[in-house]
Design brief:
The structure is a homodimer. Chain A is α/β, with parallel strands linked by helices. Chain A has eleven helices and 13 strands. A nine-stranded mixed beta sheet of chain A has the order 5-4-1-8-9-10-11-12-13, with helices on both faces. In chain A, strand 4, helix 2 and strand 5 form a beta-alpha-beta unit. At the A-B interface, helix 7, strand 13, helix 9 and helix 11 of A face helix 7, strand 13, helix 9 and helix 11 of B.
């Protein structure tokens, strides 16, 4: 199976207590691709400015990531700046310069339209719907979103959630979307709104998968040193969708294993700035950590 | 193996959005005993007033809980009143009347002194040390504490932690005790201070066990309706220590399974006020939920 991802492409400037990185390639589409491309071919749709240096992401081309759907527009690439503190769960946004991303108008190239798995990264739900209208029904639509759209574009978001097979949220978003405190109840309610599968990410507490009456809980990998949490969610999604594409199976047991692969890739991603660690990572290291995961929950 | 528990005995008045209960038997020693007595004989040390009605805890006697170490003093039993809100993680204490508990002076009866497993429930660390000084070194000392003693009696607490084999904390307390944000780092540092095993409870996110270089993560049971969270921690400890006593084995693999039993008993306990649910609970129901647990993490 191959994968279509539609999302942001950015140049990130990040400060943490352990250092900083300026104008490093980032954005949901690139973090996702860096992870998913370990497993399957990825077709990217996004927008960059004339300042974007494709050499910085050349390793992705070598991993069967197709950039032909990236629109290069006159102007500057989307830039985001943020600062993390010792408590990595809190971050300050220092600046958000949308630049060419402000008028992002995703167009799916003809040769991308039969992608099997479609990951709609966290962008305006109106644009997410615009993507779905351009393509035949894929085998699986996976959706990410955030609190900004839950409060600001609820009607559009509900529409795209209704077209979604796998919804990925964090715990705060799941509670916000259903206005309920109990995470299990929140999850059950979301499953009544369209998605057949719901993944709730809980940061250092791992992730859970809800589907019909089944419930799966995955631990987080016990990392003592997180250098840069940027892109953790998108690299998780990339590992998750990539693993499904690799197996070619769309069922609950496969998704359980896919969550372990997503968690594994995300745990490597946060060990360095940008997606540097995913450039150097090899499959042997990845499989070793997947094995570690199985030892964490066995009893 | 048999068990000694030293802790509070209280009459609790609890209000929740789903109802209330007045002057119900509670306190760490009774919650612990209600859980542990499913697995092994329990010897209780505590103090009550002349108003305490032992008939309310007669079911414990039938489960081999020995109350001969309970000191009945002139005066009133310790009373605690609390109110929970829709977000059950927050509670308001309405009143705390220590009464006879104020001068609790735990004396371990001669016939209790060779208890194999000693659970020091959350009381003043000076009293916890006083207990340990009265008895020969047990096979296993399990300690609970709280933020109040971490900030208020740190020196005494550090002393008793140095004598502890298994320390049970929640995530906030683990971070507070080590002044560090990363829970794994916090855990490793605590293991350098004496305890061979550390359990960090994370409420709806489950619990983790740290020991040498091993790491175990247990999910929480996915409960949609929690009626009264009072006693969750002590019934967890009761199930945990009880299971170890039952198996007679003190090693890491046994403790992993003991955490699943502790989590199971605690998940029943919060389904009703006081420990009512642990009165009606039978082993068949418990084992069915233990089986459910194994399906939550398998992949």
């Amino acid at each position: 199976m191959n994968i279509l991802v539609v999302g942001s492409i950015a140049l990130d400037s990040v400060e943490t207590p352990w250092g900083s990185a300026n104008d490093s390639p980032g954005g949901s589409a690139l973090y996702f691709s860096s992870a998913a491309s370990f497993f399957a071919p990825v077709n990217v749709v996004g927008v960059v400015g004339t300042d974007f240096d494709f050499k910085a992401v050349d390793f992705l081309r070598q991993r069967s990531v197709n950039f032909d759907g990236i629109d290069q527009q006159e102007g500057l690439t989307f830039r985001w700046g943020g600062r993390y503190h010792m408590d990595l769960n809190q971050r300050d946004t220092l600046f958000t310069d949308l630049n060419v991303f402000e008028n992002f108008n995703p167009k799916i190239p003809e040769f991308y339209r039969n992608s099997d798995l479609v990951f709609l990264a966290n962008i305006d739900p109106d644009l997410q719907m615009q993507v779905l209208r351009q393509i035949p029904r894929p085998k699986l639509v996976i959706l990410d979103t955030m609190n900004f759209w839950i409060t600001g574009k609820r009607k559009s978001l509900d529409e795209v959630i209704g077209q979604t097979d796998v919804l990925i949220l964090n715990d705060e978003e799941a509670r916000m979307l259903t206005d309920t405190g109990n995470l299990i109840t929140a999850g059950r309610r979301i499953l009544e709104r369209g998605p057949k599968f719901l993944i709730i990410k809980k940061g250092e507490h791992g992730a859970v998968l809800l589907h019909d009456n089944s419930y799966f809980s995955a631990p987080a990998y016990p990392l003592e040193k997180v250098v840069d949490p940027t892109g953790a969610g998108d690299s998780f999604a990339g590992g998750f969708v990539g693993y499904i594409a690799h197996t070619g199976k769309i069922d609950e047991p496969t998704m359980r294993r896919a969550i372990i692969y997503g968690s594994t890739v995300a745990s490597f991603n946060v060990e360095d700035f940008s997606f540097r660690r995913l450039v150097s990572l090899n499959r042997k290291e990845m499989e070793a950590r997947v094995d570690d995961f199985s030892r964490i929950t066995v009893y």
